[in-house]
Amino acid sequence: MRPFLIPSLVMAALLPVARADEGMWLFTKPPVRQVKEKYGFEITPQWLEHLQKSSVRFGNGGSGSFVSANGLILTNHHVGSGMIEKLSTKERDLLKNGFYAATAGEELKCPDLELNVLVSIEDVTARVTAAVKDGQSPDEAAAARRAVTADIQKKSYEATGLRSDVVTLYQGGAYHLYRYHRYTDVRLVFAPDVMAAAFGGDPDNFEFPRYCLDFCFFRAYENDAPAKTPHFLKWKTAGAQENELVFTSGHPGRTNRSVTLAQLESMRDSGFPHRLEQIFRGETLLRAWSDRDRENARRAKGAIVGTQNGRKATMARLNGLLDPALMARKKESEAKLRETAEEAFTRIEHAEKASREYEMRLRMLEGGDGFGSGLFGIARTLLRVADESAKPEGERLGEYRQASRPSLELDLLSTEPVYKDMETLRMANALTFLCAKLGATDATVQSILAGKSPDARATELIQGTTLDDVEVRRKLYEGGKEAVAASADPLILLAKLVDEEARGLRLRADATGEVISQAHREIATARFARDGDSAYPDATFSLRLSYGVVKGYMDGNVTIPPHTTFWEMHERHANQGAIAPFDLTEAWKERATKLDPLVPLNFISTNDITGGNSGSPVVNREGELVGLIFDSNAPGLVSDFFYTEEKGRAVSVHPAAIQEVMKKIYRADRVLEELTH
């Protein structure tokens, strides 16, 4: 089950101008001129199409690529870890011990994983913008845009059967319809043990040098047979050399390089501090619970790693926004556009100020921060899908439209195990957080707690629900509004209790977002007129191309080389006392002498990436796979707001390292044969 998400209140706007190796480029607007001028390589339509159709989007927020004609997919271990954890049991811990399907029949079917491959892109800007009329209020304009978007997606889905998403680009400067081939039968093929995959753990996260084998393999199936995938990336064991031109094709989740100074200040002063407080609470709670019992530790492993990752990333980004030099740079670049779009900037400033009146309630009630439970998210989904299905398509909330229904059903009816003890723990923590943020005497808070303490109320709600049973969910889902209305499940009743206020907050946020979006379109027009094809849009979890070179950097007086090796990995293992998170399995230690110590393990490049790029393939001029993105170094994290090539780097696993350990440590001969022949 995915965490409950809401559309962002903050709408990005200013269009970034590419410098150096900067840019997360659209496949419909690739950096042909920039790459040709700087590196002498011409990106052709054929090269681009092959890369596009070899690239895979993971529905849980990551990227991957086909690496064989039979649906074999390479991605990061940390992208696949949620699925690996779901496939684990108390008796068979696949995270701890790893997994290898020695035969096709042993490949494990994932309970709720959706993969998307981009098939086509259509510009629908004229249709979307024509729906909003002059003189409409923000509420009316937002409703008109929702209606036309829903109509475009519905008609596309009915005509093609493909997943159809209208993607907002340039913060309202353009709208594109992305059509995806959807794979919902996905099976785990191979995963290394987590000690090797996440070697160095939290201490080494977002650092370089690194020594991680952060990779795993899945396979897409259709009609109960491996999918036929003629577009796939050929394996190049030698990888890429220092200073060689390389490209990444992936799905960066979101950047904020285009937002105005006022929006960055809101993130700095409100958004990120709130998120950090939430993260610190959750990490402390889960660690204490994990330390009590080995089974607790297994169940909480993924959540703890995700929380730690979020902590370090959020702290780095907040640190960037607290850097006066970076904020001054933003103010200076904004000043040049204010000359032609002053009124638009002012409207955004006013909208940001107005949103502060309700943003905390929005986060806690509609955003789900006050509930902290996947089971509550299920209850809300059941309630809302029943309500929204009765409405015309254009009036529904986006996640409940017909085109989104297959993904919703896959998630809602997942057979993923639910651990009520952990759900109770997390909900009690969230309810306490709710009291701290809205006040224990707040009328809504008192209604939610029903006269009990957060601990007692969480226990009552989670232990009393039956929504952990897939068949109960299915009956409520298929029974529709009548079945949900008749349900006495405590979490359904809680969802009903807060739904009216939560929906109202969402509508206010949508109206504010419309004001911001319209202002950004004016700014975008000014930026396009000035910068032309050097402008690229902020990331939107849609397929993007970036380019760069394999290259080290200087950290003070220290030269950081572009590659690490197995020799250095084992040296770090020994120097850190061979204790967690620098330990290795006994099987690894027994076979480690067979590894070539000088084989490159991880490498860095100047490619422009962000969250969501995890699992992206790195390819050379010939379109061969020469690496696997898995991280950014710490200086690169500020690239959410400002790209920097001085020290910021993308970190990748080298294909030679993957091949070396699959052959000599894990003995995964069947997969290795498929990769290299």
What is the strand and helix layout of this fold?
Elements: E1 25-26, H1 32-39, H2 45-54, E2 55-58, E3 62-66, E4 72-75, H3 77-86, H4 94-97, E5 99-100, E6 108-109, E7 115-123, H5 125-130, H6 138-160, E8 163-169, E9 174-183, E10 185-191, H7 194-197, H8 201-204, E11 216-222, E12 225-226, E13 245-250, H9 261-291, H10 294-321, H11 324-355, H12 359-366, H13 374-389, H14 405-412, H15 420-438, H16 443-449, H17 454-464, H18 470-486, H19 490-531, E14 544-549, E15 553-555, E16 558-560, E17 563-565, H20 566-575, H21 586-591, E18 600-605, E19 617-619, E20 625-632, E21 650-653, H22 655-664, H23 669-676
Antiparallel strand pairs: 1-14, 2-3, 2-7, 3-4, 4-11, 5-10, 6-10, 7-9, 8-9, 10-11, 11-12, 13-14, 13-19, 15-16, 17-18, 18-21, 19-20, 20-21
Brief description of this entry?
This protein is an alpha+beta fold and 677 residues long.
Description:
Catalyzes the removal of dipeptides from the N-terminus of oligopeptides. Pfam families: Peptidase_S46. This is Dipeptidyl-peptidase. The protein has 677 residues and is α+β, with helices and mostly antiparallel strands. Among the domains are: 285 residues, Thrombin, subunit H; 81 residues, no CATH class. The chain is 48% helix and 15% strand. The protein is built from 23 helices and 21 strands. The strands form 3 sheets. Strands 2, 3, 4, 5, 6, 7, 8, 9, 10, 11 and 12 form an 11-stranded antiparallel beta sheet that branches. A hairpin with a 2-residue loop joins β15 and β16. α12 crosses α19. The longest helix is centred in the last third of the chain and has 42 residues. The N terminus is likely disordered.
